[in-house]
Structure formats: structure tokens, C-alpha cells
Design goal:
The complex is a heterodimer of chains A (199) and B (217). Chain A contains 5 helices and 6 strands, in the order αααββββαββα. Chain A is an alpha/beta fold. Chains A and B meet through helix 1 and helix 2 of A and helix 2, helix 3, helix 5, helix 6 and helix 7 of B.
Chain lengths: 199, 217
Amino acid sequence: MTEDLKNIDILFSKAFENFKDDSHEQDWQQMSVALNRQNFMRFGITHFNIYYAAIITLITGLSFYIAANKYISTNAPEPKKPRNEESIPATSLDHPIINYDTTRNSAKRQSPVLMKMSTQLPSKTSQKPDVIIDRGTDISNNTLKNDRITNLKSNENDSTSETVATTGKIVEKKKIQRVTIVKKNPVILNDTVIKYKRK
Amino acid sequence: MLYEKEIINGCKKYHKDAQKALYEKYAPMMYGICIRYASRENEVKDILQEGFLKVFSQINSFKELGSFEGWIKRIIVNHSINYYHKNRKHYKHLDIDNINESEIFYDSSDIEDITIDKNSISPRELNQDNITAEIIEKAGFTHKELLEILNRLPEPFRLVFNLHCIEHYKHDEIAELLKIDIGTSRTRLLRARKIIREMLCEMSVLKLSHEMHIEIK
């Protein structure tokens, strides 16, 4: 019995100890794919692997992020102007001519006024003036008229405030929200000769 | 053609050619090992592939002190056992002690009562005691037949038999690998041998009777 069992051991040992099956030589392709996957997961300087891939992805992502930030900062849109605002440039107006004459000619006088008129209601945040009045450096002789212009500022809260006219006549009816006075060099004509002649 | 040392050095540097050479050299032999531990074709291929991946990843730990073939064999065998442990739940749960040995033998009832050669033994009269090594040897079992016998063994018996009789592991090593007692290892081996012997007897009779039947005709 024991001998028989030993014989069984020998029988199997002989049969399988150096047993080879050559019918699976083509499995290298599958093995190669699995090896490539394994190599990709393993760190090494000589071959491309997951660590390199991660670094490349990180760098690309970062550069994209920085580039996008730069683009946004350089191409940022300018703050929008209120749509209903109309500005009248100072150049479009005639040069102010201030005469040292009396109130008779006051209607003819032109004042250097830059006006911005708006029908928009004043907002809390925007402090832009609706009317800008350029004021000459030396219009002391015209204090009455100037006062009238400057007084416009005090009437700015009046939403239905009337026409602003530097020359004293009605130009256009528009709602005025705010008035700012800007200094500008006026051209002053002296017509004292005429005055003397009259006298 | 690369020599073994060149192959090993190439594999240590992860050269594809060397890896291919190593695979082509040792895969047939390792396949022969894997089929003893797994019965299904896809399982065998899985074990072989994963085992070789382990070989390639751990080749730097090979110190070239012993046989390289032995080193690979050990990795493949260990991986086969790990694979068994991992997929244990997929195997049928059998209470080893309650396995009815007669259930796994061939049914000899349909064999005619014919005399076998000079021994004049009827297949019906065959039993463990009167079957000899001579008869088994005479039957001339092929690899495929022996493998079939192995695959018919319950998994725990097969593992112990493989490790002890073919890989020549000692019982304490088997116990450590399979996480069982040494006594259990011994018992399983005895029972495995007993089952194999009976299967061999049955198959011998079948084979011989079949040959005799052809001769008679």
C-alpha cells in the first residue's frame, strides 16, 4: 500500500516536473500590453509614465490658467457710460466772450459752459455730473450771471429743473441731475472804448 | 539568442526584448505549473500573466545566488496559491470531511466482465488492494489523463498534493502557505493520494479493458 502511494507520487512527479506546454506562445501580445500598463504606472527616468503625464498635465493646466487670467486682465471691458447721457464738448461751443458791459448786452454774452445733460435719474454710486459748467478764471465782472450759473448746482436735486443756459436764453428742455463747474480760460474782450464813446 | 544572464540583466533594465525572451523561454514551463493549480483555461492564463508581471517587477530582487528557473517557479506557485485564496469564495464550498470518495470515481457498472491479460482480474473485482503499480504503469497514462485526475480532486486536496508530491514542499511549508495546520496538511495529502489511487485503478481498468476489447475484436 505504502509502496503504491509512493509510486503514485513518482508517477505524477515524473509526469509534471518538467512538463511544458508550447501551445501558448502567442500570448506575448497580451503580456506585452499588460507590461506596458505596469511600466506606465512605475516611476522611471527612461520611460514615459504616469508621473510624467501628471506633471505635464499640471504644467499645461497652470499655463492655461495664467494665460487666461492675463487675457482677462488686459482685455477687461471699460466701464459703461450711461446710455441716455449726452455730452456737449466744449469745443463745439463758441469761445466765451465776456464783455465788461452792463446787463444790456448780457443776452449776447456767451459763457464757457460744458454741459452734460441727462434724463437719467441720479444713482447713488455714480457721481458723474450731468451738467459741467466751465468757468473762466476772471469773470469777476459778471458775478451776477455767474452766480446764476453756479446756482444751477444748487438746483440739481430738482428733477424738473429748467433749462440750463449759459447765455441766459433757453437752449433745450431737459432734466438736469447734476452740475459741475470746470474752470477754463475764457477770452475776454475789452470794449471800454465803446463804453467811453457812449458816455 | 540571448543567454540567461543577458536576459536577466536586460529584464532588470526593463528592456522589452529581454522581457520577451524571458517570457518565451519560461512561459511554457510555467504554464505547465499553472494548469495544475487552476482547472479553467482563463484562470490558468490569468495566473500565468499576473505571475510573470510579478517576475518582471521583482526581478531586481533576484540575487543570482540560486537557480533562476527555481526562483520563477516559486513566484508562480506562490501566486497560484494567492490566486486560490483570493478566489476561494468562487469555488464550491465542500466540507472536506464529508466528501464521498466514491462520487468522484468513474462508474464501472457498464464495463463488461472481461479478463485482463494474464492477471485474470475482472473489473468488478478490482479494488484498492489488488491493483498494483504494475497495472497502473501498464495503462500508460498520458499528461492529459493525469491532469484530468488532478482536476477532479477537490481544491484543498489538489493544492496539498501538488505542493508536496510535485513541488516537493515540506508539510510545514505547505501549512504556512495555505494557512493550515501541519496535521491538516498531512491528512489532506493522505486523502488526496487515496482518491488518486482509486481513480487511477478505475482508469487503468477502463483503459486496459478497452484495449483488450479491441484485441478481442
